[in-house]
Amino acid sequence: MLFSDMPILDHPQAILRPLRLDDIQAWHDYLTLEQVYQHTSWNVRSPDDLIHYAWQPEQFTDSSALRFAIADRDSDRLLGTAGFHTVTPINASAEIAYDLSPAAWGRKLASAASASLLRWGHGHIGLVRIQATVLPSNLRSINVLERNGFEREGLLRAYRKVRGPSLDFWIYSHIQEK
Questions:
Q1: Which of 33, 46, 95, 152 has a CA 20 to 30 Å removed from the CA of 123?
Q2: Does 24 reside within a domain?
Q3: For residue 114, what is the domain's CATH number?
Q4: Looking at the domain assignment, is residue 166 inside a domain?
């Protein structure tokens, strides 16, 4: 799999760009807000927990997690992030993930970023399967996935520990059309 070209975001207010070190504090600040925290599996204690997500192409392998910044088109201010983790080249699959600052909610940014990553993932890097896991309480994320053509496959019971207990997650998939 090649991660040479960036996905292009089709949204009038935002762009996708590499996630930079100077984005980390703002990312940490919104990830630790209760309205964000309660619907994610993040367990971020400090900005240092996020530094390894900053763009470092010299360290990428074909199974590297990739996280892009969703940034305001005019000010370049971080609005959110989107990307892939659990990249499995041998199976041509990856898990999509995204998050937004509450100040950016309601603008269809997560939907646009997901659509861009789907096109890029299937078309540019050759992913056959792009999956997503989502807490049942995260209705906004469920809507993003379904709006982008993901299909719900089932409930993963006690799938992932989230700040202590193992919680259930829905699993969704988007399969490349032949």
A1: 152
A2: yes
A3: 3.40.630.30
A4: no
In a domain, 139, yes or no: no
Residue 145: inside a domain:
no
CA 36 – CA 24 distance, rounded (Å): 16
Q: What DSSP line would sit under the chain, residue for residue? A: ----S------TTEEEEE--GGGHHHHHHHHTSHHHHTTS-----SGGGGGGGS--GGG--TT--EEEEEEETTT--EEEEEEEEEEEGGGTEEEEEEEE-GGGTTSSHHHHHHHHHHHHHHHTS--SEEEEEE-TT-HHHHHHHHHTT-EEEEEEEEEEE-SSSEEEEEEEEEEPP-
Q: What's this model's pTM, rounded to 2 decimal places?
A: 0.92
Look up the domain containing 57 and give its range. Answer: 14-128
Per-residue pLDDT of 142-152, as tens digits, reads 999 999 999 99
In this prediction, residues 54-78 reach a mean pLDDT of 84
Would you say how long the chain is, in residues?
Answer: 178
